[in-house]
Amino acid sequence: MMKRPSLPRLSLARWLWTATGLVLVIGLVWLAWPRPLQVEVAVIDHGPVRREIIDEGRTRIHDVFVISAPVAGNLQRIELHPGDPVSRGAVVATILPADPALLDARLAQEAAAVVTAARSALAAAEAGADLAQRDRTRVARLAAQGFAAPAALDGANAALRAARAEVSARQAELQRARIAAGGGATQPGIPTPVRSPASGRVLQLLRPSQGVVLIGTPLLELGDPANLEVVAEFLSQDAMLIPTGATAFLEGWGGETVLPARVSIIEPFAHTRISALGIEEQRVNVILHLSDPEAAPPLGHGFRLDVRVVVSETPNALRVPTDALVRNGTGWAVFRIIDGRARLTPIRIGTGDDRFRTLLEGLTAGERVILFPGDAIRDGSRVRGASGTGPAD
After folding, report:
1. Which residue of 117, 238, 266, 276 has the fewest CB atoms within a 10 Å radius of its CB?
2. Mean per-residue pLDDT for 143-156?
3. Is the dihedral of CA 337, 343, 347, 350 positive or negative?
């Protein structure tokens, strides 16, 4: 019999290299095989949607009285302190007459000469008045006897009145000259009390120390902390959206609670303010009042806080998370999950805030959308929802 030819036998080393190559190829194929992207998922549902505008505000007392010096003089030290209560009509400060200015020798001699001249003019006026009085007496006696006409008597009376007026004028000139020379006839040291025009508390002392003040110098500020309001400077385009009477919330005042408030006045005048970036902004003052002033903390004048005004609110709207929105041309879209794949779905949205927007069309309640879609997400990409994700809330 003929022997059949035997096949070449593979060595053990060749078997090992072949198996290693197969494992490497399989690993590369597994690594290159497309896998679903893990994404965070939210569910379209119904709930409240609110649009709010937030800006910085300041508290202020509605009626702040600046009490000023009614006369010039030497202000005595004010004994009041910020926060002290003051009743209407109470004396809050005292002003003494200021000391007359010292004159040098030349000015003193000139002032003395003016006083002497004024005294001489007064003596001449008094002599003229005495003469006019005697003339009037003689004319009146002659007129009574029929030897003088009535016109002569009228002229004598007029001359007497003119002479007396001249005496009064010269007396005033003498008084003014004496005052200029430092010898005024007013009584020195009589204080002038400064009284409060209203009841309230002292907000701040503008001139607490003793010293000479001019007329109209501000001394202190007074106000009633119970009559408190909040002023927030909103951009003019945001202020146009705020209705009078809108609900607002005050935060960042130093406590954990949120203080409810109401918009009372939107001022019709805008002012220009330079932002921190150097940009000119048109700002409008929006005035708010606390909804429950008695339960509010003891806020003072000029305290900083954050004002959150509710512009619009829908209590039970079909809503979509703002974090799921992506731009789609000039409109908006979301990536909806259908059979494990992301599908770009155009939608139409309404108002809302940084959490939710009202959904007008494009989706229904219960559909799942991808939150924070990145550049790796494309229409048709395989996705897998992350564990622990659920409704939009």
Report:
1. 276
2. 78
3. positive
